[in-house]
Every structure is written in structure tokens, then in C-alpha cells.
Amino acid sequence: MSDTSSRTAADAARHATAAATAAAASGVAGATADDAPVLHLNAVSRHYLQGDERLDILNGADLAVWPGQSVALIAPSGSGKSTLLHIAGLLERPDGGEVFVAGKATSALGDGSRTRLRRTALGFVYQFHHLLPEFSALENVMLPQMVRGLKRTEAEARASELLSYLGLKDRTGHRPGELSGGEQQRVAIARAVANAPRVLLADEPTGNLDPRTSERVFTALSELVRESRLATVVATHNMDLAARMDRRVTLREGKVAELE
Ligand code: ADP
Ligand code: MG
Fold first, then answer.
1. 84, 40, 86: which is closest to 65 by C-alpha?
2. Helices first, then strands: H and E counts in the chain
3. Is the CB of 236 under 6 A from ligand 1?
4. pLDDT in tens, 27-49
5. How close is the Cα of 163 to the center of ligand 2, in Å?
6. In Å, how far from its chain's centre is CA 182?
7. 80 C-alpha vs ligand 2 centroid, how far in Å?
8. Which protein residue has the closest C-alpha to ligand 1 atom 16?
9. SS3 for 138?
């Protein structure tokens, strides 16, 4: 057995054990060891140094999310929500612990492999849309697909379909500056799911929107998640929206705790 395959086998065994524990702990209906989580943070830690002081932002955080499951992450500002999402999204590396994406351990992967996995398996929506201002809504949704190697016509068809689905059929030619906040955020959602990820991570996606607009964006997001069996983790301060998700968790002393 080569080094690579034995490492993979060890990863799989570790993941299966941790997944079974996580399934039991989360009390998720139907979640068993066979039904593996698509995203799994196992004993993740992350600290920052502030002068002489060490801030343990994440300290043994465990979170397993199953396909089709929506999780609201509700915790005060500064408690580590963005840190957790960035680590789950392979945008940052943890100091300790392991992140499994679609069953694959990511800590030993090089930057190139992490980037490829991020592009194919993960979608990210930020509080601010981060759309490219000089491109149309359609082009913004086409770009990640073309980066992945899709032909222009295929990327355009999918972008157009997604934008229509999100209620933006008449806005596809507009640039971000010509769209409202809610429209911009729906384009950002379309872009995040353009490559059909397994997991969608959203960091206060409605944080900048008025209540009505945020309701609209959230409904669009929920429908998309349900229809595509995406797993999603959404950091939010909006308790009404969180109440409509499958699960609610918070961060307590650097660990993920279930709410309710
Ligand atoms: P939240 O998203 O819940 O508001 P964050 O994950 O952004 O929390 O931040 C958690 C804590 O970690 C905050 O106190 C923040 O100041 C600190 N922090 C975040 N990023 C860094 C960094 N790069 N360097 C130092 N401290 C950081
Ligand atoms: Mg944050």
C-alpha cells in the first residue's frame, strides 16, 4: 500500500468514527454513520495573537452538516462566526483539527488542491456582495464556471437559468451598480452556486438589507438549498430567518453548541 492510499484509508476511518459521534450528538433525524456529513469540522482550533495576549477563537469546535441540511450559526459579533466559515470554506487553515469536505480530509492538501476543492465543492456568500463592478450580473455568474473550464455557451445557459430562478430574469444585463442591495445579493447567491457546490457557506448574507429585502433573499436561498440538496451554514443575527432553518447552533468558548 502506498503512503497516499494508507493515509486516505486512515482519514476515512477517522472521519467515519468522528461522523458517527457527530451524528449521535447532533440528534439529526436520519443521520447515521453511513449517511456521511458533507462538511465536517473535527476538533478545529484557531487562535490569534493580539500583542502578548492569545485569543482562542475556536477551541475544539466540532460541526457536522449533512446533505440537504440548513444550519443557522447565531452568535454575538466577535465570537468567531466568520473565522469558522472561512476555515470551513478552505479560505483559512485551522491551527489544529481537521476539516472534511465531501469526506476528504483537507489539512494535508496543498494550496492548489484546496483551491480546486473549494471551486468544485464549496460556495461562499459574503455580507457584502463582492461582485465585479465592471461585469454584468450574467457575466458575474458565468465567470466561476469559465474558470472551472466550462464553455462560454454552457456557462451562459446555467447563469441565465439561475438568475431567472432567483427572480432576476430582467436584470441579467445590469451591472452590480445598477442593482438594488437585495438584487446584488441574489446575484452573489447565484454566483456561489453556479458550479453546483455541495456546501453553501453564507456570512451574514442579509446583514446589510432591510427586513423585507432580507426576507426575499432568504426565501430565494432556502428554495435553492431545498431543491438542490445543498448543505448550508448561514451566520445570521436574524432570529426569524434562523427559526426557519433545520438546525441552530452557536459558538460558546470556542466550541459549537446546539441551540434549543
Ligand atoms: P464574528 O464573525 O463572529 O464577528 P470573527 O470570526 O470575525 O467573529 O472574529 C472573532 C475574533 O477574532 C474577533 O475578536 C476578531 O477581532 C478576532 N480576529 C479575527 N481575525 C483576526 C486576525 N486576522 N487577527 C487577529 N484577530 C482576529
Ligand atoms: Mg463575522
1. 40
2. 8, 10
3. no
4. 444 444 457 999 999 999 999 99
5. 27
6. 19
7. 7
8. 78
9. helix
Q: Please give the biggest Cα pair distance in the chain.
A: 58
Give residue for cell 448543505.
231
Atom of ligand 1 nearest to the CA of 75: 3
Contact criterion met (CB below 8 Å) for 234 and 71: yes
Residue pLDDT, tens place only, 158-194: 999 999 988 899 999 999 999 999 999 999 999 999 9
Ligand 1 mutation target, pool 41, 45, 47, 48, most atoms within 8 A of CB: 48
Which residues make beta-bridge pairs with 54?
49
For ligand 1, say whether the CB of 49 is within 6 Å of any of its atoms: no
Burial of 240 (0-12, 13-18, 19+ CB in 10 A): exposed
Q: pTM of the predicted model, to two decimals?
A: 0.87
CA 251 to centroid of ligand 1, rounded, Å: 13
pLDDT in tens, 62-94: 999 999 999 999 999 999 999 999 999 999 999
**How much distance in Å is there from the Cα of 254 to the middle of ligand 1?**
12
* Neighbour count for residue 55 (Cβ, 10 Å): 12
**Helix or strand holding residue 202 (H, E):** strand 199-203
Give the ligand 1 atom nearest the CA of 84. Answer: 6
